[in-house]
Amino acid sequence: MSADSHIHDFLFAQALPLARLEDDWKLLGSLLDDCLMREIGPEMFSKVEKIRSLAHCASDLAANHDLEASKFLAQKMKEELTALPIEESVPITRAFSQFLMLTGQAETHHSVRTSRVEGTLAKTCDEVFATLISQGTTPDQLYEAVCKQNVEIVLTAHPTQVNRRTLQYKHQRIANLLAQNDRADLTLEERDHVIADIVREITALWQTDELRRRKPTPVDEARGGLHIVEQSLWAAMPMYLRRVNAALKKHTGRDLPIHARPLTFGSWMGGDRDGNPNVTAKVTKDVACLARWMAADLYLREVDVLRFELSMGHANEQVWFMAQEITAHQRLHEEQHGSRSQRHSVAGDLATPSVLPPRPIATRSGSGTSSFSMEAPPPRPTFEEVQALPTMPAVAPYLSDGALLKDVGSPPSGAPWSPPKTPPLLSPEATHHPFHSATVEGTSLASSPTNSQKGDPQMRHVFSFGDIPSRASEGPTPKPLHKSTSATKMDGKPPRASSPSPPKISTTRGGPSTSGPGAGAKPPETPLRSGKPARPARWHKSSIDALLHPRHAGATPYRIVLGDVRQKLLNTRKRMEDILAGLEPNEDDEWLETTESLADPLLACYWSLWECGGGIVADGRLLDLLRRVYCFGPSLMKMDLRQESTRHSDALDALTEYLEMGSYSSWPEEQKIEWLSKELDSRRPLVPGTMPMSAEVREVFATFRVAATLGSTSLGAYVISMARSASDVLAVELLKREACLAVAGEKGQEPKASQLGMRVVPLFETLADLQAAGPTMRTLLAVPWYRKYLREAHEDQQEVMLGYSDSGKDAGRLAANWALFGAQEDLVQVCKDHGVELTLFHGRGGTVGRGGGPMYLAIQSQPPGSVTGSLRLTEQGEMIQAKFGIPAVAQRQLEIYTTAVLLATKSPPKPARLPEWRAIMDELSTISCRDYRSIVHETPHFVSYFNNATPVAELGFLNISSRPTRRKQGGGVETLRAIPWIFAWTQTRMVLPSWLGIGEALQQLLAQGKREELKAMYEEWPFFQSTMDLIEMILAKADMRIAAMYDSVLVSAPEEVALGQMLRAKFMSTVDAVLEVTGHQALCQNNQMLRRLIEMRNPFIGPLNVLQVEILRRLRLDSENLMLRDALMLTINGLASGMRNTG
What we know:
alpha/beta; two-stranded antiparallel sheet; 8-stranded parallel β-barrel
């Protein structure tokens, strides 16, 4: 969607007052003028001022309906611009472009500023939760729906962000300074400093090259995505979850569980190889390592702050036990390595003393106040005793009678502060269930604890605090220490969520205080710790780090535990650095491989604080870090892999030809399914190691090999683009299994569940594929092997992706929208018939032509039943920066996703009220598709007109993407990617793909006398209403006078000139038809804010269009002129900023 839609997505309850925005525009404009006077001189600045004045006057006259005077001034402006030499065109282009970029930041800041005014925001968590309860949703049902919600936003590397990352950073700085300037308590001196800082940023912007001088690599693109996490999402995520938690507590009386993840992020950066030969298996591996390095670095920063914050000397028995184990391991390491260890090995903490200080014992007086006494620590264990240390116990606090502590944060008077001998435990199978930590009147939502302990050998090593021996030598039978801290089940299978009916859930965190902060409060629920022991880290610290983090006696237990976490994070970073450098990592160094391995010690500290009366401290930075751990995991964003279906067919074709089985590609679908099912049932390797391969086939096998190595900790889904049949999915499953067998076989192991568990997701893109999506999935789910596999490996959950971009390019926006709506309905029914839960993955683009639009409106207009608490969707290019570039904006966007999906789940949008409405949509779709295709795909000279009238051929100079603009060389529109297809038309202000065909369809049905039916559909059917509103928004941003100017200068062939005239006439008829259906008197009548913003920008966009046309004319006569090429790229960047979208 466009950035204008992003502002719409803030969902203000009332129209934004724009006076303060205009003040910001004037401030930034005056500061830019001062900068221009210094940088380009008074003479050139006077030309900029003259052109700007002509543009403003022409725009104002047009708004006052004095079209003749407006046309005269517009012509004078055009003459001034076309007469400029190229040396003067560049600074003038930059001046208008810079102003549009600055106004974009002012608009973003204004939306944030207005959102801080009480009562201005609509559809907040508080409002939506209250609405659902008023509609009959019970608090228990609301709590369950929020905790189970699973929304994933997938950031892609699609090339729609024209601004360099350096410029994005400076723009963000300016937005932050505008926020500072709003403070009413600033002194005159402080305000002067803020203005001076803005001047410096604007000057730095002007002196910075706006153009990328080389194409980004896939790793560059991935760095940009990770930068968004570091820059904004890292801060926004815990604040968003605090807002969800507050609303949930208000309306249900319960807190959001620590491990709940209503929203997460994924990525295609480094994994999307569809049509991009630059994304190789090595690139995927490097990006995965880079993401892990960045995750470890971000966690490390938080842990460093926590180590200073958690200075308390009192802790529960488990944390003291952990600190004792860490200290013992450290001392043994020093003894074994002698003086060298003493020089280079420290505890990575403020302290890890050789002997722990006395342990404070918490007691409570009759008045309810807490006090602490000191107890001498137990004797230091021997090396053999340390090896015998048991698995860390579950960390939830218990009272002496065996009941889970629910109502107190410290033990009541007279109650011993020790847990039961055999506390109730959740089964490991419940560790990933949203409610696995909740209790229902003393029982778990998961399966029976008794059965779980009997059935899973891992559970034999999980015991209560009461079972912790006072001496390590009194522990159970020794267990070998593991080399990593990952958590998997003993049988190699991943933990599976139980799926019981959701009964009433017990209260969680936060209750009345009896004495002091945190005292008497209810601790939150916690997930069960993994059964695998957490071995203290080996210490390899540099002398600098030793000086910065010295060791001394008397350290607090929290700092010892967090110091161990810190060292493992350092080891994780070092491991990723070694892998990226091509070195063999040190397998003796403990590193954090899984979410649980990082969360477990943090949870132990969290519960300890709650037990000892420090709940208010625990619910601060530590809780924020825990929520980040569960939302971001060890890799920040799991990476999806994507490849076209024909590449997999080619690989299998090479295999069957080598095995003398014939050509796989020529087999009928039934034979493919039969052979693939047979091979998948077999456990023998299929691909001979000596098989000769082409480079393309070898790369396919190498990709699956890397996927098997990385596993599900780093990877999310494997997306098959252009999927057309059930065999396309089975082919990927076979290639995945072969790679897992090969990788595991080299290590003499069985394939791990994390290797085999990567989801395989078909992507249906074209109109025909969307219409056949339901039957294709019905065939796939009828395959016995696949149905069994889906049940065992994915718990009967199927994911299907729908493509918006290529379907729109193939059939036009209206026909594509209706096909997508129908495909979702079909898929929902097919999965329901087979007892499978469906998750839809929406591959939406940035603009309306590629499925974009306000996200809230889009989710609320989906077919009933298609959103059931689980949803995936893509965000890309300029929208990533617009939505998530600033923490305050990102926090609001995350809330919008949450509330929209919750509403669509619990209160689905209304379906078509009458069957006749669906028949009308069928007719509209057919007519619009026929009209669109007759022009785009069947008009002989359309492609040459498109190439001449738009800058599509020159977009490749932008260097905004690592991938080619075409899937295949040659061909027409069908081989062109959807992004340059939309991008080029947006630059000329025709925006053809977003509306072509719609006017013809509406006009025909209006002529048939169906005006009242269409108006009723618009007023009562969310799907039709959202479709019309988005088209109306695009029509408002288009300008046929500008489009005609491109034709008059760049198009010369008579048939192409006639085609342009016909398209502009179609545009005007589309405007008339849309206004008749909606009942509006003018475009965007129901969105006055957007209309005003467009009017404010137009005087600065028009001159850039004039300059672009003239520069295109000159460049096509002198294609090697680099100055002309740079000037053109500057106009493209400026127009993209002004239109607030690209492709």
